[in-house]
Structure formats: C-alpha cells, structure tokens
Design a protein that fits this description.
Length: 368
C-alpha cells in the first residue's frame, strides 16, 4: 500500500461563545482548522485534522500547518501509511520541529492502518478500553459569577469534569478556586488551568493559599524550569501540558518529579505516534493523564479518545473535547458525541469518523 495523494482543506470553526484565557489576556472566537485527506493505491482513505487553539495560545497556527504539509508532502508520498514509524521519520527529516504540522498526517495514517486491519485505532495500538471517558469542559470565563454560569451550562449537558481557567491576578484566582470548590459536586473532576499565566511568586502565593483544598493545578508557570523551581515549595498536584512537547520533556518531568499529571495534547506533541511514547513514560512513573485535542472538530476529539482508550481506566482522568464549543459540525452528527458528559469509543475500523466533504469546499492544496 502506498500514499498516492494528500489533499488539504481549510475551514473556520466558530466558537459558540467568545473564549478567554488566563484572566482575559487572550481572547478569540474562531478556530482555523486544517483537514487532511490521505489517499492510497489500495482505495483506503484516511483523514487527519490540525486545529490550534487560536494563534496566540502556543507556537502553532493554522497557516503553519498548511505550509508544513507543503514541505513534507513530497517526502511521505509513496510510503506505506500503515508503517507509521517510517512516515514519522520521513516527516522529522523533511521538517525538524514543527510537531503541530505533522499531527494531521500521522492521524490520517493511523486511520488508514486501522481500516486496513479492520480494527479501531485504539485496538490497533494495543488498548481499546470501552469504558466511557469523561469529557472535560473548558471554562474560560472572567468573573466568579461567569465561571459559575459556564460550569452550570456544562453540568446541564452531563459534564462531570471541568478545566477552570485562572491566572494573572493572585487575589482573583484564590477567590475563584475557593468559590468553585464551594459548589463542587460529589464525583466531579476539577482542574485549575493557569495556561502559563503566573510568575513564580504568583504561583506560590495561590497554590499555598489553596493547599487545604487539595486541588490540581495545570501549567502554573511558563516553562518546565519555572514549574521545577517551585516544585518543593507547595503541596498541590501539578499537571503539565503546554510545556509537554517532546519525549525529552516527558522524560525530564517524570525523572525529576516535576509534575504528577501529564496533559497530553495530541496536536501539540505531533500526533498519536509520539503521544504513545509519552503515555508509556507516564505509566512507568506512576503519572496520571488527561488527553486533549488542542482544538477542533469531532475528528480531533475522536483521536484523543483513541489514545485515552489505551490508558488504564484508573490512570486517565478525562478527555478534553471541543465539539460542544463549536457552532459548525463538519461530520453531520457522526462520530463519538457527548452522552451524559462522556465519550464512547467508536467500533468502526480506523478513526471511526470522517468529515462531510461537501462542507469543506475545494482543497487549498493537492499533492500527488
């Protein structure tokens, strides 16, 4: 089997509500999605998606994905997509770094490999837990009252896991954490996500003030060095996501005890192939995980669900999915959807969901 054609599509995905990060320092309303269709001489087609969370969140943006694919396409053309390691190496040689641009092609190759084997991606990867995974909301409101309102909106959709955005103001952050904990319901999973919005002193002040609550904080500093510098000065469990980019990052975090949780963002780390190695490092060191699509449609959500299904149930807290935040559905209702706040693994071979091509329009580029 050989790759014979790669088609690239761009589509805007409007958000249902404007989104703020880190106390309002970043705001956006539309996601720039790149969909990739990989065709083979065996008649099997795979789909991948790369949708950064805006242009200001991490070093990734939609136009960069499309430019990266233009550079890499000649090097993966003619390869067997089932041999995902060969494709991975070809992309890494053609374009060092730029992991976010590689994720859609990696995803499409796993889709093809699963279809060819007659297995779901999760089963093909050796996992395949059918335990429904909780969906984590993303609560990007600015005030305490708005935060309560957003959490309530997600609770009405069945959500039991919530990623509450904080950062940028010590007193406001302490108040928000304490307020959310005061309304926390039994069985709910709460993660307080700073999105790199604290300096070291701010992190210590908030985390020390909230130690009695025993809550989890995500990315409480800009870099791994920042998080490591304060690791011995507080008692709160820490998750690292935005600074978890490479396998070397994962190894350092695990070895040095910098964090207790990995937030694996598939587009951020370069796709399923590279993310699976981080999963194994985490499991080997007793580190739990959240699995996340960086953003995007049900395709990106489903990719995250497949990886989550390869993690033992006890070690996977939740899957972050974006589909409920969008006003456009490019898959016509197909694929894993919110059922009482959870996603269920599809049984269809491969990814388990493909887009409606009529909604995508003409490709922006075709490589043969």
């Amino acid at each position: 089997m050989k790759i014979t054609c790669i088609s690239v599509f761009q589509i805007d995905l409007p958000l249902e509500h404007p989104y703020w990060l880190s106390g309002g320092r970043l705001k956006f309303e539309v996601l720039d999605a790149t969909l990739v269709k990989v065709e083979t001489d065996a008649g099997i087609t795979g789909w991948g998606e790369g949708t950064p969370w805006g242009h200001t969140y991490v070093p990734a943006h939609g136009p960069g994905i499309r430019a990266g694919i233009e550079t890499m396409a000649p090097f993966v053309m003619g390869l067997d997509p089932r041999r995902v390691l060969d494709v991975e190496r070809a992309m890494d040689l053609a374009l060092p770094g730029h992991l976010y641009a590689k994720s859609p092609i990696d995803m499409a190759c796993w889709d093809i490999a699963g279809q060819a084997a007659g297995m779901t991606i999760a089963d093909l990867m050796g996992g395949g837990s059918r335990t429904p995974r909780p969906i984590a909301s993303s609560v990007g409101a600015k005030t305490v009252d708005e935060t309560r309102a957003v959490i309530d909106r997600y609770r009405q959709r069945g959500y039991i896991a919530h990623s509450v955005k904080i950062g940028g103001d010590v007193e406001r952050d302490i108040a928000r954490v304490r307020d959310v904990e005061s309304i926390r319901q039994p069985g709910e999973i709460m993660l307080y996500d700073v999105n790199r919005g604290w300096t070291r002193q701010q992190a210590l002040r908030v985390m020390s003030a909230c130690e009695d609550l025993n809550v989890m904080f995500e990315q409480p500093g800009e870099t791994i060095d920042d998080i490591a510098a304060i690791a011995g000065k507080h008692a709160s469990p820490v998750s690292v996501d935005e600074a978890l980019v490479t396998l070397q990052d994962a190894a350092r975090i695990a070895r040095d005890g910098i964090a207790e949780i990995f937030g694996i963002k598939l587009n951020r780390v370069g796709g399923l192939t590279k993310a699976a190695r981080m999963r194994d490092v985490a499991l080997a060191h007793g580190i739990d995980m959240f699995v996340m699509a960086t953003g995007g449609s049900v395709l990106a959500d489903t990719e995250a669900l497949h990886l989550a299904a390869t993690i033992p149930d006890a070690n996977c807290h939740a899957v972050w999915a974006c589909q409920d935040m969008l006003t456009v559905d490019i898959a016509g209702g197909r694929g894993p959807r919110n059922v009482d706040g959870h996603l269920h693994l599809p049984e269809t071979p491969g990814l388990g969901v493909h887009p409606d091509e009529d909604m995508l329009g003409n490709p922006t580029a075709v490589y043969t």
